[in-house]
Structures are given as structure tokens and as C-alpha cells.
TrEMBL record:
Pfam families for the chain: Cupin_8 (PF13621)
Coiled coil start-end: none
Every JmjC domain range: 86-249
Record-linked InterPro entries: Cupin_8, JmjC_dom
Cited SUPFAM superfamilies: Clavaminate synthase-like (SSF51197)
Domain of life: Bacteria
Entries under PANTHER family matching the protein: HYPOXIA-INDUCIBLE FACTOR 1 ALPHA INHIBITOR-RELATED (PTHR12461), HYPOXIA-INDUCIBLE FACTOR 1-ALPHA INHIBITOR (PTHR12461:SF105)
Protein name from the UniProt record: Cupin-like domain-containing protein
């Protein structure tokens, strides 16, 4: 078994605030450029997205691999990434033998930390993502549906993280729609930067990005950047997710009858009630769709 995190990770702060710590994955053979060059072509093509090196925080990150193609195949993108202008994002490499053991170690260690801190009895929907980028490339402003531990393997970057549950940064209805797997527009406005907490990031550094916290990344100029994100849900974030999905599905109905919905994160009791009521909201949505088609 591989130890993934340095001792002293403050698990009690998860999803309350971003914090930096250290990881222990610098020597993992699958996380070198050479290891990735072997593994990535063996993954299903839909899990390996690549584009030009992005340079605008307003770009929609979810669509970048379609709207900003680099004109090369995967092998050439990897081969030229040091001197070129490319960005590679890889989802769920844990299905490959090279990452299977690491994935299990991350799951076990994070579960133990959460239980120790009284945060959660389990982790849910754990995933690995890899990000390989040319010097000076950026990751545009976006937010994720999970808690995130970002670990830097090679190169440097600056990571800007924004407070979660702030409607002036991510509007409530936009956040709820995204959590319900609906497409959203890019959200960046230059005036948001005053709210950022910025972290300088080098190999061996790890950063917790809280659930739904907006963030962007600017890679350093001196080298290729390789980083690994471990995404997961806790008992709490899963409850928040389901409550947001409930709000999103009931929003049209509640507006029609003049009800104002309470945003998630204000009341533990109300969030739990909405989470448990999600199947009812799904049934109402199905009935409404059938009535609209009739």
C-alpha cells in the first residue's frame, strides 16, 4: 500500500475552507510523462480530452476539448507538450492496472481520515482526474460537483480558490442546475478575482478545494505541469447534492405557486429533508414532462 498524504491533514476543515498540505506521490511511476505516454493510449478515447493550451478564464472548461482543438492526435500532443501549447484532461484512469492500486490507497486513506475527524462514515463516487498541461496554460474558472484534493506532481502553478455557497460568485440557480447535470455558461467576471485565495503550488504540494468552490489555475512557465485530482463525495456533500437537485427540479413548480426556495447550506434539517424527498421531486418532474408532451 502507498501512503498518499503527509501526516497532519486537517480533515475537520474539509469543505469549509481551502487548505494546503503535502502529498507522497512524487515517485509513483504512472505519474511520469513516460508512464502517462504508455497508459493514456490504452484508456477509452472518451476519457482522454485534449485541446490547445487555454489562455482565457472565460472559456467553458467542459467544452474546451471540442471548441479549442489543437489539431493533433494524442501521441503527438504528449510528445510536444513541453514545447507546444496543449492541455490534456484524463477522467477515471483507475480502470487501468497502473492506477488501480493508487486509487484503492486514496480511497482507503481518505475514508480513514474522514472517519477519524467525524466528517463522514464513507466516501461516495470517488474518482481520479489527471491534468497535463504545457507551460503557461490555464484551467479556466469553474466549479466541481465533488470535494477535491489536488496534488502537484511536476511543474508549478498558481491556484485561485473562491469561497463556496456564495451566490455573488456562483448564483444559486446556476449551482443547482449544474449539480443536476445540466449545462451552464461560463461564469468568469474580472471583478470576482478580489474574492480569490491564491496558492503557489509546486511538486509535493496538495490542496483541498471545497465542494462547489469556484477555482482557476495558471501553470508556471518553466515546465510541463502534471497534477492529479482525487474527487469524492462525503455523507454531507452527498446530502447537499441531492438537496440542490431537489431545488432545481422543483424550481419551476415553486415559482408557479409563489414559493421561495431556501438555498442549500443554510439548514441541516431542511437539506436532509430535501435530500430524502428527491425521489418525489423526480416523480413530479416525470409527470410534468408527460403533461407537456400531451
Amino acid at each position: 500500500m502507498t501512503k498518499c498524504f503527509a501526516d497532519g491533514l486537517p480533515a475537520g476543515q474539509l469543505d469549509r475552507a481551502p487548505f494546503q498540505f503535502r502529498h507522497a506521490l512524487l515517485d509513483h511511476p504512472a505519474l511520469t510523462i513516460e508512464g502517462l505516454a504508455e497508459v493514456l493510449p490504452e484508456l477509452p478515447p472518451e476519457r482522454v480530452r485534449y485541446s490547445k493550451g487555454l489562455a482565457d478564464l472565460r472559456i467553458n472548461f467542459d467544452h474546451a476539448h471540442v471548441e479549442h482543438r489543437n489539431g493533433m492526435g494524442l501521441a503527438d500532443t504528449i510528445e510536444t507538450i513541453r514545447g507546444g501549447n496543449s492541455y490534456i484532461a484524463v477522467s477515471d484512469p483507475q480502470t487501468h492496472p497502473a492506477f488501480r492500486g493508487l486509487y484503492g490507497d486514496l480511497c482507503r486513506e481518505m475514508t480513514a481520515l474522514l472517519r477519524e475527524g467525524g466528517q463522514s462514515q464513507a466516501i461516495h463516487e470517488p474518482r481520479i482526474w489527471l491534468f497535463i498541461a504545457s507551460p503557461n496554460a490555464i484551467t479556466p474558472f469553474h466549479f466541481d460537483r465533488y470535494s477535491n484534493v489536488l496534488m502537484q506532481i511536476r511543474g508549478s502553478k498558481q491556484v485561485a480558490v473562491f469561497p463556496n455557497f456564495r451566490p455573488d460568485i456562483v448564483p444559486v440557480d446556476v449551482c443547482e442546475a449544474y449539480m443536476d447535470r445540466q449545462p451552464i455558461d461560463a461564469l468568469w467576471r474580472d471583478e470576482l478575482d478580489q474574492h480569490a485565495i491564491k496558492f503557489d503550488f509546486r511538486p509535493g504540494d496538495a490542496l483541498h478545494i471545497p465542494y462547489t468552490s469556484g477555482h482557476y489555475v495558471k501553470n508556471g512557465a518553466e515546465d510541463v505541469s502534471i497534477s492529479l485530482s482525487f474527487f469524492f463525495q462525503t455523507d454531507e456533500t452527498l446530502r447537499w447534492t441531492r438537496a440542490m437537485q431537489f431545488n432545481h427540479r422543483m424550481r419551476r413548480w415553486s415559482k408557479a405557486v409563489g414559493l421561495r426556495q431556501t438555498p442549500v447550506g443554510h439548514s441541516h434539517w431542511l437539506d436532509a429533508t430535501k435530500s430524502h424527498a428527491l425521489p418525489c421531486a423526480e416523480a413530479v418532474s416525470r409527470v410534468a414532462r408527460r403533461l407537456r408532451r400531451a
